[in-house]
Amino acid sequence: MRRLLGYVGVCLLVALAPGPDNCFVLAQSAAFGAWAGLCVTAGLMSGLCVHIALAALGVAAVLGRWPRAAEAIALLGACYLFYVAWGMWGAGMAAARAEAGSPFGFWLRGVALNLSNPKVILFFVAFLPRFLPPGCRRRALGLMGLGALFLLSAAAVMGACALAGGGLAAFLGRNPQAAAWVGRASAVAVVAIGVWIFVPAARALAGRGARG
After folding, report:
1. Within 10 A of 202 (CB to CB), how many other CB atoms are there?
2. Residue 40: count of CB within 10 angstroms of its CB
3. Is residue 25 left, alpha or beta, with left meaning phi > 0 and alpha meaning psi from -120 to 50?
4. Count of alpha carbons within 13 Å of 32, Cβ hemisphere only?
5. pLDDT one-digit tens code per residue, 50-99
């Protein structure tokens, strides 16, 4: 029981720590409303389901032995975020909200961000298995259970971020001049998140290429 409670506490701390996921939810909900942030959150949780399945099947451990693959995925995800930020900056807030697209588009953004986040990959490869009970016979089932607890913790935190950003969006709707500035600030925030993911992955990939 202590092991399980400790794990839940770690999950909450990881979810609360400033990172690409919660920052992106805040930026999207502040720009487009709480509904957009919640759709992004749903996408992030869908991405976590993929990570959980890969960990349970042992694929995550295999990916951990091929770090170049994880780094290449991270670079692709960062480039996608740059594309999203370009659209937010160039369109302006009013046009961006009008052309925000369907909830599926925001869900897809969340999926892409989560699957390309190297920290999430590392969590499921190196950290999650450590909380399995010693001598666990049903390893896959145990990993799925631990992953589900992490998903619930992350969903609670990300949902709160979406609602907080939605409150800011409602305020900006009544203040068009402030909305223009915050819209571009949100685009800059998305670029920063992309750089956050891109730079470490690019450095690691370049370092492996130099050694190889």
Report:
1. 15
2. 32
3. alpha
4. 26
5. 988 888 887 666 665 666 766 777 787 778 778 777 766 655 544 445 44
Q: Is pLDDT larger for residue 43 or for residue 53?
A: 43
CA distances from 170 to 72, 74, 161, 173, 181 (A): 38, 33, 14, 5, 15
Q: Where are the domains of the chain?
A: 20-211
Nearest CA to 161 out of 7, 65, 20, 52 is that of: 20
DSSP string, 172-191: HHT-HHHHHHHHHHHHHHHH
| Cα torsion 11, 151, 185, 84: sign | positive
Rounded Cα–Cα distance for residues 31 and 25 (Å): 10
40: confidence class by pLDDT, cuts 50, 70, 90:
very high
> At which residue do the structure tokens 């909830």 appear?
103
Of 67-71, 74-78, 136-140, 199-203, the poorest mean pLDDT is in 67-71
